[in-house]
User: Fold this.
Amino acid sequence: MSKKNYLTSKYIIFFLFVIVCLTWGTTWIGIKFAVETVNPLLAAGLRFIIAFPFLLLITFISKSPILFPRKSWPFFILLTLFYFTIPYYLISFGEQYVSSGLTSLLFSSMPIFSIIFSKIFLKDKIYLNQVIGITLGFLCLIYILISEGLVISYTDFLGVASILLAAIMHGFLYVYSKKAGDGINVFTFNTLPIGVAGVLLCLLSFVFEKNQLHAISLNSWLALIYLGVVASVGGFIAYFYLLKRMSPVILSFIFIIFPVVAIFISAIYENKPISTHFIISTFIMLCGFAITKLPTNLRKNH
Assistant:
């Protein structure tokens, strides 16, 4: 590769990294806008219904299979239910009671749960820096929740619990898919599960929620389109492009950066100043999570 092409490739990678951070950072405010006039089951379902045709088109263009291999059908069901259907409903439900910035902070704990599940199911070794990082991160998270008054109100606590449960499910599926999803094309992995999850969520919504489609605001529709097209499709494509060209360790720092973006945007949207103790606690928490991401070979050498 020529020096010019090499630099161009580096600029593209950097640009896409920034795009993913911004996209994932703005997803949370998009959900907040969506659930203002849309019930949580329907909001999660419509997001996927909007995303599905675009993913289906990309899958056809890339000549990837739509269906999972027959032996992987149980994994397909597990993925559809516990990675897409239930967690995204829980996030939409939780954002009715929790700010978008704090929601992103709660969900950024997902890689920590994946480390824990890796130890339980894959028997991976947990290093000292991971124990320190996890402990530090969760202590700061508990302090933030207490200082923000989110363990006093029942509904607020229920919102926090819902978002953390979604993060736990994603952490588990991330680990489980390392073996069960091995060899499955990345577009196959996402396309049909998103489509089925979208239909299932919408059906559940019409059974359990009282929907008034005429009452959905323009802001909510725009948010759903943004979540479906930009966040679910654009962010997904950019992320997996980077996954093939960047170190997974460096790429995982997206989970450290996007909460910062989300908190900043949330503060602007809610016209609420960010307190100094919240900034300090968030910084320490994210630093704790960052410590867990040190490369394995670096840990072994120390």
